[in-house]
Amino acid sequence: MTRRELIGFCLTFPAAYEDYPFGGAADGGMWTVMRHRTNQKSFALIYERNGKLCANLKCEPLEADFLRQAFKNVTPAYHMNKLHWNTVTLGGDVPDTALLQMIRRSYDLIRPKRRKRGNKTD
Question: Is-contact 35 43, C-beta < 8 A?
Fold first, then answer.
């Protein structure tokens, strides 16, 4: 999967957009941050490290640990909270289907939660 394909998949989620907070262009090797438009929270950070395409993805702590044990190319996140974020190095032992599922899960974790409607009691 290429950088552009990865960004394209992330853009299929509602209110997702790409951001370049550290400068640079989409194909310039800089960090691409995929965010939710409503709350500006990040769900994928895409970058190159040591010549390999990588993606930092948000996870629940137990899920993060499970994925690190299941795949050699899933490690504690580079430059992120290592309890809640993993780095996936593309082109390794993580199948594209598993990568796409990890991105979906990351998006679900950051998207704004709907409030339950109910009667207010003051």
Answer: yes
